[in-house]
Amino acid sequence: MEMEKLVSLCKRRGFLFQSSEIYGGLNGFWDYGPLGVELKRNIKDAWWRDMITGHDDLSVLTGAPAKYQMVGLDCTIIMHPQVWKCSGHYDLFHDFMVDCRQSKKRYRHDQVRGRWVEAKGKKIFVSTTAEAAEEEAETERKALKFFKLRSKNADELSWTSDFVSLSAMSDFAEVLGPDANELGTLTPPREFNLMFKTIVGALGSEDDAAFLRPETAQGIFANFKNVVDSSRVKIPFGIGQVGKSFRNEITPRNFTFRSREFEQMEVEFFCRPEESQEWYKYWRDRRYQWYLDLGLADERLQLRDHDSDELSHYSTGTADIEYAFPFLPSGEFGELEGIAHRGNFDLRSHMEGKLNPNTNPLELETNEHGQPKHRGSGKDLSYRDKETNERFIPHVIEPSAGADRAALAFLCEAYCEDEAPDEKGKMQSRTVLKLHPRLAPIKAAIFPLVKKDGLPELAQQIYRELKQDHNVFYDETGAVGRRYRRQDEIGTPFCITVDSQTLQDKTVTIRDRDSLEQSRINMNDCATEVARRIAGKGKVCSENPS
RNA sequence: GCGGGUGUAGCUUAGUGGUAAAGCAAUGGCCUUCCAAGCCAUCCAUGAGGGUUCGAUUCCCUUCACCCGCUCCA
Fold first, then answer.
1. CB 3.0 to 4.6 Å from A69: which of A120, A121, A237, A350, for a disulfide?
2. Same domain membership, residue A332 and residue A458
């Protein structure tokens, strides 16, 4: 499937528009049109229903280690700045980057290391991005090449310093960049603010700087105690939240896949440390199945466990649910959702202060004076088991999904060009969105076959009745075939048509979008039939010829 | 952020230093008894800003957006 066709359809039919399009657009921001907003809302509603309000906390769900509770939360986008300092985002999202004018590469300032060397009366700083084990050999190789020396003359190189990070350098004039063969090609370090900054208060100054949240999760951690104290939840339980997050992406690209403003659907699931591994596996598999149940094909969906070297020290497991988006090279997948075992890192960071994620066991990150780099709240965020009277800091499993990425994946999966007969029975190509009925923006369209003999009045009667429970659409213009095709293109799963036979026996036809099959049902049964078909329809996207 | 490419109607394309053309779509009619039919009518465009010029959609500059490749992806 070509991405341009889907992008074009999204615009033409009102799923997605570029933000501020009349002013030329804004890179990394997208608006949802009348149909897109319904699709995205259906995705969020399905998630909320399946994870939170519809959750059966009295039964042990298939694959789950035990019964558990689920509650929701809706936190503010702007939070106390200390939240982001303790969460690690403040440090992590303020990278200093240097660019190389020669190699055109960009490096994280603190990840480039090197040492001073002198030869032939000239002193230079040789830098590299190589691993610590190889940096000595790598800098020697580079120095030899720069001074045009043979390996056997390596003793002519006089190393005058230990390895230091580029961040310790004040001037790059004598620096040989990691991929450069001349000096002074590195630009001064520039700050990349990946969090959106704003000022709180009408007269606020830089001291009143605050940030738009780069994830919804921290609001849940910050409210952990409030939820425990107010809602009678007992561990194990989860807190879910759906909402906007903001990241100043360096390169937004691939339609809505990497946007600067996006919506997340996150659960923070709190459990006993010794049971956390089982819960991690449960959530990983449960979330994967959710996408399958809503129609993503398993050959385009994968559950990828992170390798141990990708994991944070405090995490005993992280998996990504990934989808083979059509804009990616063949064989590559893009992340829809990450399920991370986060240990007690977050709750402890908000208690004690920012922890150093590279320590094991976790230690407080300190500044040059030995003081905490970012002070925590000092509040006790531990949990007391009312039965055993045991107090502990829960471990956290975090399934974190992107609503916009899910919407994009469902659209990509649903887009389909197949054939349908025209009025002469000849096969014509048709564009159809084979969206799961739960996700389809419009559940059913109601047509009078012709605009006379009282058929419109009957159709409108059905329309009004269905409207009470579903988002339905009424259309009486043009040939009925054209109306069917219009609905196919926006993914409407069912079309109900009133014809002359309705006048005699009160039956109407209901047409299935995917099979094109029509069956006659009593016009008074339309609402129940549509509800039955939406609920009963399993996987509808089993075939995707593109 | 770098390099290359592209911007004409909702979409697909045409064209020109001097009135911007068509098909499809949309809208309103007529006609139509089940899968994009037909007829009539209507609506809509040179991404933005500046320069050269009597005159710029066309030439030049800047900018914005999109696509491809690098980079980045917390």
1. A237
2. no
What is the pTM assigned to this prediction?
0.86
Question: Is the separation of the CB atoms in A143 and A155 below 8 Å?
Answer: no
From residues 234-273 of A, list those within 7 angstroms of strand B by Cβ. Answer: 247-255, 258
A453 Cβ nearer than 7 Å to chain B strand: yes
pLDDT tens digit sequence for A363-399: 888 888 888 889 999 999 999 998 899 999 999 999 9
Residue A209 identity: A
Last residue of a domain, one of A192, A224, A249: A192
Q: Are residues A435 and A344 in the same domain?
A: no
Residue at A451 is within a domain: yes
ipTM greater than cut 0.90: no
3-class secondary-structure state, position A143: helix
| Structural domain containing residue A483 | 431-536
- Model confidence pLDDT, tens digit, residues A420-434: 776 666 677 788 999
Does residue A181 sit in the same domain as residue A203?
Answer: no
* Sign of the C-alpha dihedral computed for residues A286, A288, A293 and A294 taken in this order: positive
In chain B, which nucleotides are within 7 Å of a protein Cβ? Answer: 1-2, 7, 10-12, 25-29, 31-38, 47-48, 64-74
The amino acid occupying position A85 is: K
Q: Mark residues 197-236 of chain A whose C-beta is closer than 7 A to nucleic acid strand B.
A: 214
Q: Tell me, what DSSP letter sits at residue A259?
A: -
Q: How confident is the model at residue A509 (pLDDT cuts 50, 70, 90)?
A: very high
In a domain, A415, yes or no: no
Assess if residue A421 is contained within a domain.
no
Q: What's the total number of domains in chain A?
A: 3
How long is the CA A296 to C1' B65 vector, in angstroms? 31
d(CA A106, CA A186): 9
